[in-house]
Amino acid sequence: MAKVFAYTLPEVKTSLKNTTTTTIVKEAEEPAFTLAQLEFAEETLPLGDNRIDRKMKKVLASFRYQNLQTNRLHRKAAEWFPVIEPILAEYGIPNDFKYMPLVESGLQGGTSPKGAAGFWQFMPATARMYGLKVNGSIDERKNLRKSTIAACKYIKELYGIFDSWTLVAAAYNVGDMHMKRQINKQKQDNYFKMKLNSETGGYVYKLISMKEILENPYRNGYENQKAFIAYDAQKPQAITLVE
After folding, report:
1. Residue 91: which of 40, 149, 173, 139 has the closest Cα?
2. CATH number of 78's domain
3. Range of the domain at 70
4. Which of 45, 133, 143, 170 is the least crowded, having the fewest Cβ atoms under 10 Å away?
5. d(CA 85, CA 140)
6. Could you tell me the pTM of the whole model?
7. Do 131 and 149 touch, CB atoms closer than 8 A?
8. 75 found inside a domain
């Protein structure tokens, strides 16, 4: 919200007996928003590329309150982040990955047509590979804590392959083999400059947009929402991770 300050000016004296002051309240202007402010895990958008700028603006606009007309994402963030953030920190994964479950399942939820389910939208085989039980009687993909631990193991493994958090996010969406092929084919390892399918090509833009509306809700139309403060890794966390 804009800060408010006041200053006083003396009125013109009409007599020696009556001298008053008038308080004028003026709103300080917020810093102008620019695309240069946007980043994911400290990886910024390439500046001066009109195609990237247009795409970022379009995706961000789709997440503004005027288009979504719901505060559901903010409510889910308030519920999920206290569980997700310390686990990410424990595994050394950037805090920005907490936005991934909101993009994956924050609005729709449920099971995708391909069979992905849960907070992190794991396929059954991938979920089992990273320690989750998925069978006829139990589906740990729908357990926030356990599925976040599994996701962290997967994300950390992907980073060992790609050495870039934006590429990791894209590979999480489309698969590591596909991303490797595209990097080799295009001879390009900057996510924003790659040509990918529409879903994967817009995935990191969605993560950045999710971050923006949660950290700066007011300027994105969410007038009754408070900004989410970044996780403080220095605070003691009562959590035990099971490898």
Report:
1. 149
2. 1.10.530.10
3. 35-220
4. 133
5. 19
6. 0.81
7. yes
8. yes
